[in-house]
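Worked example 3 (structure in, sequence out).
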């Protein structure tokens, strides 16, 4: 199996574990990350990128939560850990199966917007996330944000590749 195919499969397993298992299946994400770092990437090469994707995505989503665009069913200041781990999983793809989206920038924007609709739409459909301002409006906004964020994450990837730890 090619590394990019394995990377995509690991991402999908981790993403499904986050959505279907919430906090109960986060151990699957840990296993996915461990397999990724052992078989595909390395902490030396990808560590800063993984942490950056985790923090950047979590901060943006937590900001949207504070604005009232997201409702995870309980009063909270930050997004749930399973949602933050989705961002960590996105970080695992940037040097591998999603590298083809890095250039031209519009490719990353298009893929980011589509993935946002899929991921947040699935979270809404599964009842993990409510969108108080309406699904269409909020999903359109989140798609627009992801259309900006995925090229920015690729920018982090380029920066870190040019300046290794």
């Amino acid at each position: 199996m090619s590394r990019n195919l394995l990377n995509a499969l690991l991402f999908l397993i981790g993403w499904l574990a986050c959505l279907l298992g919430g906090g109960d299946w986060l151990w699957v994400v840990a296993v996915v990350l461990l397999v990724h770092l052992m078989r595909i990437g390395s902490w030396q090469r990808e560590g800063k990128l993984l942490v950056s994707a985790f923090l950047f995505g979590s901060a943006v989503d937590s900001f949207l939560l504070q604005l009232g665009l997201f409702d995870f069913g309980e009063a909270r200041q930050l997004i749930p850990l399973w949602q933050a781990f989705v961002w960590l999983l996105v970080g695992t793809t940037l040097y591998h199966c999603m590298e083809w989206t890095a250039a031209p920038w519009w490719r990353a924007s298009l893929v980011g917007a589509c993935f946002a609709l899929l991921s947040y739409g699935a979270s809404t459909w599964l009842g993990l996330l409510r969108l108080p301002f309406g699904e269409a409006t909020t999903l359109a906004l989140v798609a627009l944000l992801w259309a900006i964020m995925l090229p920015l994450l690729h920018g982090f990837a380029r920066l870190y590749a040019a300046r290794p730890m």
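Notes: Helices lie at 3-21, 26-39, 43-66, 81-93, 105-125, 135-162. The radius of gyration is 15 Å.
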